[in-house]
Design a protein that fits this description.
It is built from two helices and eight strands. With 161 residues, the chain is α+β, with helices and mostly antiparallel strands. Helix 1 packs antiparallel against helix 2. It is globular and about 45 Å long.
Length: 161
């Protein structure tokens, strides 16, 4: 049984146990909560993304979305450190995330942050797409640059690492 099928089975079972406990109101809410949790779990895992900037540049990145709503990313772009941030479910099959990583000057010293925010859509269980904004700010969060970024990713699996 796959991880996601096993998770769905456990979530459905949790709703049945709650309803069987005689709590009619809680029993009615439990299946909806289980569906919300199941839907949110679809983004979990590691994704290989292609990011295309409005200036015509692009890069590849790896994003890992965790159950505790953290997201970590590394990219082929200018980041010398990984990106960290958080995510949340924003609708049926939709998610929003924000990440941040240091931006370094030519002398190797940090001069600011790159901040990315994206709204993502789960097209299929293996495909994630979205649009958002990339911003460059100085160390005092004063904006230096802002531009559009598109996101297209496929999930890593055991069969396709």
């Amino acid at each position: 049984m796959s991880h996601s099928a096993e998770r769905r089975k456990l979530l459905r079972g949790a709703g049945v146990v709650t309803a069987a406990g005689g709590f009619a109101l809680a029993g009615a809410a439990a299946p909806a909560a289980a569906q919300d949790e199941e839907s949110a779990s679809l983004i979990l895992g590691t994704w290989h993304a292609r990011l295309e900037r409005g200036d015509g540049g692009s890069e590849h990145a790896l994003f890992t979305f965790h159950a505790d709503h953290r997201v970590y990313a590394v990219s082929t772009g200018g980041a010398r450190t990984g990106s960290i941030g958080n995510w949340r479910r924003s609708g049926d099959g939709s998610f929003r995330f924000g990440i941040r990583h240091f931006h370094f000057g030519e002398d190797g010293q940090p001069v600011g942050f790159v901040i990315g925010t994206q709204t993502l859509r789960l097209e299929t269980p293996e495909r994630l797409t979205g649009t958002g904004t990339g911003r460059l700010v100085d160390l005092d969060d004063r904006q230096l640059f802002s531009g559009p970024v598109t996101f297209s990713a496929r999930r890593f699996t055991l069969d396709r690492p």
